[in-house]
Every structure is written in structure tokens, then in C-alpha cells.
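sry for the spam today, last one i promise. C-alpha cells for design, 112 residues
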């Protein structure tokens, strides 16, 4: 019996082969059986002054930011605790006191 590789996306062991493709039933990821598993690309997110950000960091805004779809403005110097990094245009997800959940760009924050 041939051992099938784990899913490169979710690491599930329940992959199956369909012709020249491997398929993961848990996340739906499909990949070629001839493709070697690529090393995960590590993406560094840096703040406005070049410090590397990580999940759970505390940052301060370095610019007044208008909240899209609202008349609210998040003021310069606002401290945002417990950030979460995401792979999107706005690379920080957070909760800002008085505003709620929002996405920020790392170029407008400074690590504390």
C-alpha cells in the first residue's frame, strides 16, 4: 500500500488520489501528484519604522484614520492591543476602543 502525502494546506492525513491529482476531503485543496511540496513562504509584517510585528503585539497609530462608511475618526496616538496579523490588503485585524473591529495597514502603526 502506498502512503499518500498529507495535505500541504491543512496537514490532513485523509488525502486521496484522483488520477494525477491529490485531493483533501477536509479543506478541498487539490494539488498535482508530480508537484513537490513547497516550503511555506514566511511573510514578515513591519510597522512604519521597520519593527517586525507579531500576533498579540500592541501598536499605536501614527496618523488620524477615517473609518470607512462612518463619520468616526481614529485619532493619532490611539493604542491598539492584541493585534492579529492576516494575509490581506489591511494586514492587521484588531478591536479599537470606541470603534469596534477593524482592519489596519501596518504602514500606519508603530509597535510599542
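last one done:
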Amino acid at each position: 500500500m502506498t502512503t499518500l502525502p498529507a495535505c500541504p494546506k491543512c496537514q490532513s492525513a485523509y488525502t486521496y488520489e484522483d488520477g494525477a491529482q491529490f485531493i483533501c476531503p477536509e479543506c478541498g485543496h487539490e494539488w498535482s501528484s508530480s508537484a513537490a511540496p513547497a516550503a511555506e513562504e514566511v511573510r514578515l509584517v513591519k510597522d512604519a519604522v521597520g519593527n517586525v510585528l507579531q500576533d498579540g503585539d500592541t501598536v499605536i497609530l501614527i496618523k488620524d484614520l477615517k473609518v470607512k462608511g462612518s463619520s468616526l475618526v481614529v485619532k493619532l496616538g490611539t493604542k491598539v492591543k492584541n493585534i492579529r496579523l492576516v494575509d490581506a490588503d489591511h494586514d492587521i485585524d484588531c478591536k479599537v476602543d470606541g470603534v469596534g473591529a477593524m482592519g489596519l495597514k501596518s504602514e500606519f502603526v508603530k509597535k510599542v
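The two ends are 54 Å apart (CA to CA). ok im logging off now
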